[in-house]
Amino acid sequence: MPIPSPILANILSLADPATWQTAIDLGDQGVTAWLSGLNRCNFSRIIFIGCGTSLFNGQAGKYLCEHLAGIPSEAVAAFSFAAYADPALLGAHTLVVGISTSGETQSVCDGLLRARQAGSPTLALTANPGSAVTKSAEAVLLTGGQSDRVGVKTSSYVQALVVLSILAARLAGTPAALKNVAEQTALAARGAAAWLTEAEQILQLAHQYAKASGVFILGSGPNLATAGEATLKVIEMAKMYAECQELEDFFHGRLNAVDHDTPVFFIAPSGPSLPRLLDFLTVTHQVDVPSIVLTDQANPAIQALASHVIQLPVVLEEYASPLLSIIPLYLFAHEIALQRGENPLSRRYAIDALKLKWGESSTAQLP
């Protein structure tokens, strides 16, 4: 049996319970140690900062903390926070969580420094102990995912979501929240294992749409982060135009950009967006736009209107659904790259050309 590529190996590792358990153990240890060192835990706001995949972690983390702990939260691009965050709006009751899987994203380090100077407590969330970001925050939460060292991150995104779930549950401070997160994480892990053993459908979709000029990926609530992360992976791996939109907002203008050959993914697990989905599918069905629905509730109405339905094997609470909904989209991005003749590991731009133009040091912090 051929050895899978590093990216595919990382995606397939999500079928292994050990991948999930590593994040659970690290999350439990890290959050317990952090809370034991606090004099108080009365945060009125949480700000997540990151770039790319890490920013999408923060966007999903916002919903975790608001749903489980009832703490207003937001995700901010790390450079924008580091450059523009008003210190007067920070302070002792605003927790700032800097997310960087590699641990070496300079803007995240700068943002954490700005937060500390403003008197905000800080946490670093990373896969790599001893990295720069761990030295920039007051405390560190490790996520696992050190094997996810290739430029395109996949499994480490899910592991970071596991740790963010544990953080949110511990901030809630109730046994019910901890029990709920443990149950949802275990269910997501079982769903990942079940889905990855029967993923032929997504491979066929990648083959069918390999020659498309682009792809739209839509989501709402916590799965807007899923849509953003999936879009980034299609761009990174397949070097293909892809665009993320909020589900409702897409139909206020951007729908005009699609055509009969441009597939539209709808990420719609059980939750408030599911009933609204039928209205949108009616439109895409009438104008003959390919619609691919990723859901855990493939009812007859969805089956009748959608071009394709990807049925998730388990039903999660919506706040936890990003743990599973991203996995089929990772596999789609990887496979469509291969179908288009692209190397998922390669960069579109030429590193040597950049070195010639800006000098050797210019590439030191390229993603």
Largest sheet: 5 strands, parallel
And the CATH topology of the largest domain?
Answer: Rossmann fold
Rg (CA only): 20 Å
Mean pLDDT, to the nearest integer, reads 90
| DSSP, total strands | 10
Proportion of beta-strand residues: 5-15%
CATH architecture of the largest domain: 3-Layer(aba) Sandwich
Strand order of the largest sheet: 2-1-3-4-5
Query: How helical, in percent, are the residues?
Result: 40-55%
Structural class: alpha/beta
Unreliable stretches covering 5 or more consecutive residues: 359-367
Total separate domains: 2
Q: In CATH's first tier, which class of the largest domain applies?
A: Alpha Beta
**What is the global morphology?**
globular
Tally the helices: 14
Order of helices and strands: HHEHEHEHEEHHHEHEHEHEHEHH
CATH superfamily of the largest domain: Glucose-6-phosphate isomerase like protein, domain 1
Distance between the termini: 32 Å
What does this structure look like?
The chain is α/β, with parallel strands linked by helices. It folds into 2 domains: 6-193, Glucose-6-phosphate isomerase like protein, domain 1 (Rossmann fold), CATH 3.40.50; 198-339, Glucose-6-phosphate isomerase like protein, domain 1 (Rossmann fold). The chain has 14 helices and 10 strands. The strands form 2 sheets. It has a 5-stranded parallel β-sheet, with helices on both faces. Strands 7-6-8-9-10 form a 5-stranded parallel β-sheet, sandwiched between helices. The longest helix is centred in the middle third of the chain and has 22 residues, at 175-196. The model is unreliable at 359-367 (pLDDT under 50).
